[in-house]
Amino acid sequence: MRGCIAAYSAPVSLSSAKIVCRSKSLLFQFKNSSPFTSLTTTSIFTTRRPFLSLSRSQPNKAKQKQKLWEFNCATIPSSSTVENPYSDFVVVNFYRFVHINDPLEEVAKQLSFLKGLDIHGRIYVNEQGINAQYSGPSKDALAYVEWLREDFRFSDILVQISPALNGHAFPKLKLRYKPSLVQLEGGISHLPLLDPTMRATPLAPSEWRKRLKEVHDSNCVVLDVRNGYEWDIGHFHGAQRPDVDCFRSTSFGESNSEEAIASDPLANVDKEKTDILMYCTGGIRCDVYSTILRQRGFQNLYTLKGGVSHYLQNEGPVEWFGNLFVFDDRLSLPPSAYNPEDSTVSSSNSQGCKNILFAHCYICGSQVNELRHRNCANIDCNLLFLCCMDCVKDFKGCCCLPCTSAPRLRPVLPGNQRYKKWYMYRELEVQNELTV
């Protein structure tokens, strides 16, 4: 794992124990108050933050009188890694369809609570519920969740949490009323989203995993309710690439022309006998679109509860190939970001490397080594695309040759950086001209 240089284990015959890194700073502390004889703890260090797991181990009859703690602790190169100011930052995602009588009052109440908290992101509220994606230090990020859960309307929200190792994943906080919690042609206010019977039946991650293994032996379609560029860096086995660049224009199940039918996984399927297994990143797009499919006569609709992020957290990357696209500054997350303690992640990923062949450079068609998109350096194009490093260099960060000579060209970004507002590059250009 990146950032780990060693690992060790040792028994500790104490009633309590402390584990420290090289800088002698306390990482965690526990006391022997458990009913079992020994405990195995595992601390896994990624580049910036540790993860701790605790597991029971069988008692040793020869040492029943001596209580042992066994731990595995990966050490890191220097204390500066631990002291990274963003090590505690997380991204939180959740949504809830519930009637809100006065959404403007709800927005004002939530804005009042968030004053003083270091939270950036997009939080939308309307009469049909709430949809939130935001980043911040874990203390602030989770304080908002706990406060929200005190309201009976939001007490059972399913929250997805992932690390934000570079700090905030959103530029600022936008908490406001929005007519549609997700963007879809014609809006969604007319859809029966508050009626659970009109939405797809949610499947727990374990059940979803089981159903995927049975897909080839049953009358079933795995429907990716995302955009094509999301599929390009990661998807479930058996899912067809969506011929969609924006969820707003999704039209599965209503194709008429021959060209549209060829790219529609639901074209010509038996609406009464075919099982439709729907999935998206966090679940909200599936819930929304399943009500549309229900109105079009599709009977057997199922959705992955909590989306892909919830699945990776609980089941690991089994039946999943690649990374997960996310709509924030991180753009792409490996499965290990959601389940760093799962020992099956590394073995599944080593097997999955053979299946990474689905990811190709937008320009030359060669296989890409990094499952992460970049925006075209031409701000007036701004296309989100996959690109090999050779083409990044040859095309100056652009998606095609014409864009390389565009008047508003941004510099090539190294690593995982995202572009800033255009005026920042324009001001830098003016300063350089003055210096010359």
Question: Mind explaining what this structure looks like?
Answer:
The longest helix is centred in the C-terminal third of the chain and has 14 residues, at 422-435. It is globular and about 55 Å long. Mean pLDDT is 80; it is low at 1-82 and 346-355. With 436 residues, the protein is an alpha/beta fold. Strand 4 (38-45) and strand 5 (50-57) form a beta hairpin. Helices cover 22% and strands 25% of the residues. It folds into four domains: 6-82, no CATH class; 89-177, Alpha-Beta Plaits, CATH 3.30.70; 196-355, Rhodanese-like domain (Oxidized Rhodanese, domain 1); 360-435, no CATH class. It starts with 5 loop residues before the first strand and ends with a helix. It has a five-stranded mixed beta sheet with strand order 10-7-9-8-11. Strands 1-6-4-5 form a four-stranded mixed beta sheet, with no helix packed on it. Residues 216-320 form the Rhodanese domain.
CATH architecture of the largest domain: 3-Layer(aba) Sandwich
Strand content: 15-25%
According to CATH, what is the class of the largest domain?
Alpha Beta
First-last Cα distance: 46 Å
Beta strands, count: 21
In short:
Residues 216-320 form the Rhodanese domain. This is Rhodanese domain-containing protein. The protein has 436 residues and is an alpha/beta fold.
Task: Please name the defining characteristics of this protein.
436 residues; alpha/beta; Oxidized Rhodanese, domain 1; 4 domains; five-stranded mixed β-sheet; four-stranded mixed β-sheet; 11 helices; globular; TRHO_N; TrhO
